[in-house]
Design brief:
Length: 192
């Protein structure tokens, strides 16, 4: 086998290089990753977790950061599950956690409300028919970086694995997860 073939068979190229890092647990990722990616984003931020509450507890002045981003022209979106939906109630039974799923949703909704009517900022609930797809996969996008958490059957998001992806070209994993988030967003319903 020619040496060039040996090298190309073993070296990642194109969209294969999109996986920056994987984590056995979302909570094992460096705590600074969320603030770093949010601070570096200039075009768009999509928080596509079912609850998203941990941003406000883990990133200092996260509401202020989102406000500054939106005021600087960055498109900021929050996609969240409905606190009283059937999917939320079912997940609540599965997790049986002290910090309930509806409580985590409400924490986010309080912070979203505090941002008010802000140009460049929008929040939506996932559509009822999409909620089961939303609750099983979180996609957090910051320009060309994404943190993706496929939720395992009976564990809370922070105990599920996470992948850090960076877009390298058309049709890679980043684009597939981006498209998933956009599909959920497009069918979502405005938070009022």
């Amino acid at each position: 086998m020619p040496w060039s073939r040996v090298v190309t068979d073993r070296v990642k190229t194109g969209s294969d290089r999109e996986l920056v890092q994987s984590y056995r647990y979302r909570s094992s990722a460096p705590s600074t990753i969320w603030a770093t990616l949010a601070n570096e984003a200039s075009r768009e931020i999509l928080l596509g977790g079912y609850t998203n509450y941990f941003f406000w507890t883990n990133v200092p002045d996260f509401g202020g950061l989102l406000r500054r981003k939106a005021e600087a022209g960055c498109r900021v979106r929050v996609l969240i599950g409905r606190p009283g939906s059937e999917v939320t109630r079912n997940r609540e039974v599965v997790e049986a956690a002290a910090l309930t799923v509806p409580t985590r949703n409400r924490i986010t909704l309080e912070h979203v409300a505090a941002l008010g009517a802000l140009e460049g900022f929008e929040a939506r609930y996932s559509a009822p028919e999409d909620a089961v797809n939303h609750i099983s996969l979180s996609v957090f996008r910051f320009d060309d970086d994404a943190l993706v958490t496929p939720h395992l059957a009976r564990v809370i998001g922070h105990d599920s694995p996470m992948m850090h992806l960076r877009r390298q070209g058309d049709g890679g994993m980043f684009d597939r997860f981006r498209d998933h988030g956009e599909e959920l967003w497009d069918r979502g319903e405005p938070v009022r």
